């Protein structure tokens, strides 16, 4: 990856489907920190983009290799339910099949989602992105679900991670690579936002201490929150 700065301008027609003004993507909005290499893109996905991504998530959630509860090695369960694309993540590694679930082959990672991720990275950093994205983790947050501070450290590449948010707003806590404690910045993520973290922030601890139930855009028809985090293995 090249220099990591704030985005410059628009990225032009690099998306898989511009949606003819129907709001698949919004015009670039001002991008902001909270840390070097970590860029919040508020309102990155327009209404049509949010609808399209949510419809895809609903398909991906179906069995086989569908939504599952993740069991942690020490016996706890994640409150967020998850489905993976491309490679199946389990604590702590990647497998071609759902080794900690129904054993089915993981669903394919769609090329268009890689395009969406590259588009977000290009907007965040103001330069083209050539990463071959091949993994997505789709997280479903019901009432009270949260995600503890962790690093996305099971990938072999240092390609930026891109997350897309749908539904209820949340507090996204973004810390440092040094440890899971302070200092951190609490960023409010809302439906349609993208968040990119790469470069010096690639291995920063982050988590979702809470969502804000009832704040999803009503027209989306989603209760709760969904995040889609795209990575390169
Ligand atoms: O839900 C989010 O926004 C964060 C998800 C996350 O950190 C992950 O999937 O590793
Ligand atoms: Fe993460």
Automatic annotation (TrEMBL):
List cofactor names only.
Fe(2+)
Please give the Gene Ontology molecular function terms for this protein: dioxygenase activity
Q: Superkingdom of the source?
A: Bacteria
Residues of the Fe2OG dioxygenase domain: 132-233
The keyword Oxidoreductase appears for this protein: yes
Read off the SUPFAM superfamilies from this record. Answer: Clavaminate synthase-like
Annotated spans, Disordered = 1-29
Cite the entry's keywords alphabetically: Dioxygenase, Iron, Metal-binding, Oxidoreductase
Is Membrane one of the keywords? no
Query: Where are the compositionally biased (Gly residues) regions?
Result: 1-23
- State the name under which the record lists this protein: Alpha-ketoglutarate-dependent dioxygenase AlkB family protein
- Organism listed in the record: Streptomyces desertarenae
């Amino acid at each position: 990856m090249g220099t990591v700065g704030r985005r410059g301008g628009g990225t032009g027609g690099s998306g898989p489907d511009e949606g003819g003004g129907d709001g698949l993507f919004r015009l670039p909005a001002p991008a902001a920190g909270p840390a070097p290499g970590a860029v919040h893109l508020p309102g990155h996905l327009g209404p049509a983009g949010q609808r399209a991504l949510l419809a895809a998530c609903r398909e991906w959630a179906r069995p086989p290799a569908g939504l599952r509860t993740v069991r942690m090695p020490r016996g706890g369960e994640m409150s967020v339910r998850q489905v993976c694309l491309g490679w199946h993540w389990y604590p702590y590694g990647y497998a071609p099949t759902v080794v900690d679930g129904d054993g089915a082959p993981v669903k394919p990672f769609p090329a268009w989602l890689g395009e969406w991720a590259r588009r977000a990275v290009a907007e965040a950093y103001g330069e083209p992105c050539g990463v071959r994205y091949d993994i997505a983790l789709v997280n479903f947050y019901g009432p009270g679900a949260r995600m503890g501070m962790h690093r996305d450290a099971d990938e072999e590449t240092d390609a930026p991670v891109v997350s897309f948010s749908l539904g209820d707003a949340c507090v996204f806590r973004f810390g440092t690579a040094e440890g899971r404690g302070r200092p951190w910045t609490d960023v409010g993520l809302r439906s349609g936002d993208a968040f990119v973290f790469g470069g010096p922030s690639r291995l920063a601890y982050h988590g979702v201490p809470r969502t804000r139930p009832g704040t999803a855009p009503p027209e989306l028809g989603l209760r709760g929150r969904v995040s889609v985090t795209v990575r390169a293995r």
